[in-house]
Amino acid sequence: MRLPGRHAGFSRLIDNEIGARQRQRFGHRKENIVSASEKQGNPKIKPFWSPLAAGIALGLVLLLTFVLSGHGLGASGAATDMVAGVGLKLAPEATKANGYLGPMVADGSPMGSWMTWEILGVAIGALVAAFMAGRFRVQFDGSRSIGTPARLISTLAGGVMAGFGARIAGGCTSGLGLSGAAALGISAFVFLALFFATGMIVSRLVKGV
Amino acid sequence: MFPLNESGMLSGLLCGILFGYALENAGFGSPVKLNAQFKLSDWAVFKVMFTAIVVAAVGLWLLRLVGLMKPDSIAVPQAALMASAVGGALVGAGFAVGGYCPGTSVVGLFSGRLDALVFIVGVVLGTTGFAVFYGAALKSLKAAWLIAEGDTFTDVYGTPEPVVLAVLGLALVAVFYFGSWFERRGTGTITAEQAVEGAR
Questions:
Q1: A69:B4 CB<8 A
Q2: Could you say which of A67, A175, B77, B119 is the most buried, measured as most Cβ atoms within 10 Å of its Cβ?
Q3: Residues of A with CB below 8 A from B79's CB?
Q4: What is the pLDDT of residues A1-30, one digit of tens each?
């Protein structure tokens, strides 16, 4: 038996119900958006650049560096120059006699090298960027997630490994990985492959941050 | 004709300031953001690095093509494969444990993170330790698997540079495609607010 009237009514009822539900859901969602933005709501904190925009900017900076200096960007080299320079001040004989640092200080202190100025620039650039975007905040990052003593150990141990490893490789993520790859060096791609593979394995074994 | 081989203070400061500015804006001062790459939930590190490599490599190639840059005039790292592999593994492990690499730790410190200062102390200690232990063993490690024929794919295997660049371009597309696929299925990328708030 067909009851078109009732059927129509029924379906209208369903329509209305769905409509009401949809309106409710829509309204609810709208409310969520508002409250989420209010909650996250520090309008002073600007979002990061998109990876594509940041990558293009970084690539152009790297290109400019090659054009200006004939070599790429770096970081761990500045630590090496600093160690050699401070070593020359504190223990001149031992530093000159050292097989690794000796040749670096043969022509005087490497303090004031291109790399040491560059890393000072990195500090200035990062400070300006963080301040301008409202992202400067003094904190001991990781102390809330794993506790301050554990974070102290993990960040120190990480630094020692990275510092030692960078000297074996002759560069770090920026000097060998980024700049060496842009110069199409084979060793840069070997570095990057092992860097990411080991990082992925170790991050599953150790919670450092 | 480029490069200018300008190795003075102004050149260093200028490149450094722009480098630091770009790294901070990419979010690379935050150990949370950086480590999320290893957890595959935020692919910003891969995406930014691959994009930068391709932009700079193509730029260098174009400058040589139009004759603005001398051939073989830029520094290419020596193809010491054992040293790159062992060193890369150690830097990667240090990155996973400490949350930074040497360059990003400077960005971390100057966006207010004091744990990054401790990481920098560690880098200096590791560098000093390397110098102290530098002897026959470390020397042979640095000399192992050294490709004598040259340092680039073009020098060693005769691969034309445009082919190397095309492969890099394809890898870049793959990184964005698969990276975004992982990001949609993961816990979400790290926003600036989350990064400023710190690890939790």
A1: yes
A2: B119
A3: 185-187
A4: 444 444 444 444 444 444 444 444 444 444
